[in-house]
TrEMBL record:
The keyword Hydrolase applies. Homohexamer; trimer of dimers. It holds the Pfam family ASD1_dom. InterPro entries: Alpha-L-AF_C, ASD1_cat, GH, Glyco_hydro_b. This is non-reducing end alpha-L-arabinofuranosidase. It catalyses: Hydrolysis of terminal non-reducing alpha-L-arabinofuranoside residues in alpha-L-arabinosides. Its EC number is 3.2.1.55. Belongs to the glycosyl hydrolase 51 family. SMART domains: Alpha-L-AF_C. Coiled coil: none annotated. It comes from Microbacterium nanhaiense. It is an enzyme of class 3 (hydrolase). Residues 308-500 form the Alpha-L-arabinofuranosidase C-terminal domain. Keywords: Carbohydrate metabolism, Glycosidase, Hydrolase.
Length: 510
């Protein structure tokens, strides 16, 4: 394709919805080597740790300003009984992790270990309760154990297990994937359970819980409608307390093949490159349509939408346990992430949280740990998260892409340039993705409504679309300063090499 010029128009003086930092959330399930060998190595490990929690993983994630962490699942959540994971580790009962590899789980990483991890990360806890095989009482007692300060039965049990002060738990999930592994329920049946269980996930003391109902898979708009109907009278009816749950979840994964053969993480054709990015772009349609369903019941946007599972899902790496979902992570994954974030920023008025699946060693991970050498590798996706920390809690700015070429891919028009922008503390951050596999582009940033000051830019790219990081070559795909930014009559001109992600930070004065 020819070298085209595209404009991205940004009105710097027209801020929109606040981009919650929680859109950059994470997910850690008892799955493969995410917890064991990832976050948690045990106190006897030669790998530096605190209470068994791996210190270099914590350090790497703190650099992302990780806002929250979802645990213990996923499908595992609806098999998990929290009392099995407290008390002396050598006395904890074991269980079978039937979803993920049919391995025996020894429960050595439980509630106390998770909450310690969140404290070390500086992240909010998003605890996912068990509706599928649990009880109302079990869930009610868990939130009491976690958050109550007095001498109640569960608070006393927590102190007996070594924790005097209650924790803060701002987010609580009412089951997971109730339409599938969480119970194979009908929408109306689950909605009734969501109302019931949420009632007993109580606010203890000054801990206010944001309850998240298990929402739809992909484009199941009827599920979303059922949950919205189940909320009843929003906005406070006479004699009625606040809504039983405050948000609904949504799950969507990107893959290039069918479920049984999802595609390779690193060996893909140019066509598969574009298919992956087109399917990533579908998140825009899903967020728009689910939001529209919610608007019909809740025009004031009191109820949040939470995309608590998203990311690429490829075939596992050859020679690894198929139930452990370990996959490599390439530059293509990084651009899948950047496309998602652009959509998240546009939907910041309704989308309140998102959690990539999953943080370490599983699916589209931030970090890969080598079981033999103990090496820690930051993935290309990690670097997109890090480059975007300036968007956390910033005000969104509409970024209108004008004149971008498109390709017809997988039944939709895929723009070759994706963009979003935000403003905070006198600086605008503009994210730009060139989705062309082979063609460089030049983009004019048409920046209106403010005087421009200092400018800096960074770029993430590589010599190959399938480039990825390994223990032997950990920085093959890593951000560097980008010198391809120049002043332009309309604002700035930015060079976007093929398959690249660029962030431009601009000082602005009204």
């Amino acid at each position: 394709m020819s070298h085209e010029t595209t404009r991205v128009v940004v009105n710097l003086d027209l801020p929109g919805a606040r981009i919650s930092r929680h859109l950059y959330g994470h997910f850690a399930e008892h799955l493969g080597r995410c917890i064991y060998g990832g976050f948690y190595v045990g106190e006897d490990s030669e790998i530096p740790n605190e209470g068994g929690i791996r210190l270099n993983v914590v350090e790497a994630l703190r650099a992302l300003k990780i806002p929250n962490l979802r645990w213990p699942g996923g499908c595992f959540a609806d098999d998990y009984h929290w009392k099995d994971g407290i008390g002396p580790r050598d006395e904890r009962p074991r269980m079978v992790n039937s979803h993920w590899g049919d391995v025996v789980e020894d429960n050595s990483f439980g509630t106390h270990e998770f909450m310690q991890l969140c404290e070390m990360l500086g992240a909010d806890a998003y605890v996912n309760g068990n509706v599928g095989s649990g009880t109302v009482r079990e869930m009610s007692e868990w939130i009491e154990y976690l958050t109550r300060a007095d001498d109640s039965p569960m608070a006393a049990l927590r102190r007996q297990n070594g924790r005097d002060e209650p924790w803060k738990v701002p987010f609580f999930g009412i089951g997971n994937e109730a339409w599938g592994c969480g119970g194979n329920m009908r929408a109306e049946a689950y909605t009734d359970l969501a109302r019931q269980y949420s009632t007993y996930v109580r606010n203890h003391g000054d801990n206010k819980v944001y309850r998240i109902a298990a929402g739809a898979n992909v484009d199941d708009y009827k599920w979303t409608a059922a949950l919205m109907r189940g909320l009843g009278c929003l906005g406070g009816c006479p004699g009625e307390d606040s809504s039983p749950y405050q948000a609904l979840s949504l799950h969507y994964y990107t893959m290039t093949g069918p479920w049984e053969d999802k595609g390779s993480a690193t060996e893909f054709t140019e066509d598969e490159w574009y298919v992956a990015l087109s399917r990533a772009f579908r998140i825009e349609e899903l967020l728009t349509r689910h939001s529209t369903v919610m608007d019909g019941y809740d025009p004031d946007k009191r109820v949040g939408l939470v995309l608590d599972e998203w990311g690429t899902w490829w075939n596992v790496e050859p020679g690894t346990n198929p139930g452990f979902l370990y996959q490599q992570n390439s530059l293509r994954d990084a651009l899948v992430a950047s496309v998602h974030f652009d959509a998240f920023h546009r939907h910041a008025d309704r989308l309140v949280m998102a959690n990539i699946a999953q943080t370490v060693n599983v699916l589209q991970a931030m970090l890969l740990t080598d079981p033999d050498s103990g090496a820690l590798v930051k993935t290309p996706t990690y670097h997109v998260f890090e480059m975007n920390t300036g968007h956390h809690d910033a005000d969104s700015l509409e970024a209108h892409v004008v004149g971008s070429e498109t390709r017809a891919v997988d039944g939709r028009e895929l723009p070759m340039v994706s963009a979003s922008a935000s403003i905070k503390d006198g600086r605008a951050l503009i994210s730009l993705s060139n989705l062309e596999a082979t063609a460089d582009r030049t983009v004019v940033l048409d920046l209106r409504g403010a005087e421009l000051g200092s400018v800096s830019a960074r770029i993430l790219t590589a010599d190959d679309t399938a480039a990825h990081n390994t223990p032997e070559n950990p920085d093959r795909v890593a951000p560097v300063a980008h010198d391809g930014v120049r002043a332009h009559a309309r604002g700035l001109e930015v060079e976007l090499p093929a398959h690249s992600y660029v962030t431009v930070s601009v000082e602005v004065a009204a």
